[in-house]
Design brief:
Layout lengths: L3 H7 L5 H4 L3 H13 L3 H13 L5 H17 L3 H9 L14 H9 L5 H24 L5 H27 L11 H15 L4 H13 L3 H8 L12 H10 L3 H13 L3 H14 L4 H19 L18 H21 L5 H16 L15 H7 L9
Length: 392
């Protein structure tokens, strides 16, 4: 620190430090901008690094990988793919060993070639597993950093296995119709569960595979498997909610669909309540909430009293008309948000319209809006005195 001041004072000429900042500083700034989602500006910093001739090989490789990420985020998919290809063999400038992350990106960018995608995923897994084995035999005094790196590597291995399962299950690919597709998915999921037996995304994918295999009981068992709470957690429902609420919303939406396929309506309603608490403008969330209440109301109308189990403290006191009104409230909100956001899923809107028309025919009207509260319709619904949406 004491030597920095004299340098500033005597450099009266060329402002070299500011015009030629360290490569590491440029990369750090670019990384911050990527985190802030300012991809155009991040691109400019990375370009400066790539044009410089004084960077190390490691810094250049880091810059190329960051550029690939930026190009991908900017929608320049082909350019991003070309950039990632410079990081893997047989490209002459590929580092040795190549970064596993480059293979993971290339796998995701190989939609048109499932076999290439599977190969990229497997190469990434092999590289990550080699890294983990290497760390086990190395001496590292900073165990916290090592644990963080290990957890990230394990997480990437699991995502690679799940990515491979998705390829095998995708009906857009011929692999889906391969006689060995089902057993291959089982093998891949077993390997993912060996890395982390209680990983929620792995268990969710397992449930999806079990449903495709027409094994709904095993699917529901997978969806209801959670890491055990620690000794300080007394409320198991709160523990499960806390685990689910940190998952990305698209993962939770997919999970809700699986729960509905398993007829686990109370689980789905509880999960969707968390989704809408996170984002009360989520079109799919309101649609699935309305569809869930519709299915529950239908079962209740047919005399099934077991369907109310687990649906809040007052669930047993609900008549089918109450549930149907809850359904209409959610569906009306979904329809309004679909229009306001110009949501692209037209079949979803068609189904919403169909359900609302049927409810109208049954004499089910929306809950009255409390005009004194004002605000948007979905806010009124989620805060009304009857607790229609929050019944889960």
């Amino acid at each position: 620190m004491g030597r920095a001041r004299p340098k500033k004072q005597r450099s009266a000429q060329p402002q070299a430090p500011s015009s030629n900042p360290a490569i590491a500083s440029l990369l750090e700034k670019a990384q911050d901008l990527i985190i802030q989602c300012d991809y155009p500006l991040a691109r400019k910093f990375i370009e400066r690094v790539l044009l410089r001739e004084d960077g190390t090989v490691s810094e250049k490789n880091q810059a190329r990988e960051m550029m690939g990420v930026v190009l991908l985020e900017l929608g320049e998919v082909d350019a991003a793919k070309e950039m990632f290809l410079t990081l893997v063999p047989p490209h002459p400038s590929a580092p040795s060993p190549p970064p596993p992350s480059a293979y993971l990106y290339l796998a995701q960018l190989s939609d048109d070639d499932p076999h290439a995608a599977l190969s990229h995923y497997q190469t990434a897994i092999d590289a990550l597993q080699s890294q983990l084995k290497g760390k086990l035999v190395s001496v590292d005094t900073n165990t916290t950093d090592r644990d963080d790196d290990d957890n990230e590597s394990k997480s990437n291995i699991i995502r690679a296995y799940l990515g491979m399962v998705e390829i095998w299950m995708d009906p857009a690919h011929d692999l889906c119709f391969d006689p060995g597709a089902s057993s291959t998915c089982d093998t891949l999921l077993s390997r993912a569960l060996e890395v982390d037996p209680q990983n929620l995304e792995t268990l969710q994918t397992l449930a999806s595979v079990r449903l495709s295999q027409e094994k709904p009981e095993e699917a529901l068992q997978a969806l209801r498997t959670f890491p055990s709470p620690d000794a300080s957690t007394a409320d198991s429902r709160a523990h499960i909610a806390s685990l689910l609420n940190v998952l990305p919303i698209p993962i939770r939406i997919a999970r809700a669909k699986l729960l509905l396929e398993c007829s686990a309506y109370a689980d789905a309603l509880s999960l969707l309540e968390g989704v809408l608490a996170t984002d009360d403008t989520n079109v799919e969330g309101w649609y699935l909430m309305g569809w869930s209440w519709w299915l529950v109301a239908e079962r209740r109308k047919e005399g099934d009293t077991s369907v109310v189990q687990g649906i809040g403290e007052d669930g047993e006191n609900l008549e089918w008309e109450d549930m149907a009104r809850d359904s209409r409230d959610c569906l009306e909100t979904c329809r309004m948000l679909h229009s306001a956001q110009a949501f692209p899923d037209e079949p979803l809107l068609d189904h919403v319209q169909e359900l609302i028309t049927t409810l109208e025919g049954l004499g089910i009207q929306s809950s009255p809006v409390d005009e004194e509260e004002g605000g948007d319709t979905w806010e009124d619904i989620s805060n009304n005195d009857d607790g229609d949406v929050e019944m889960a």
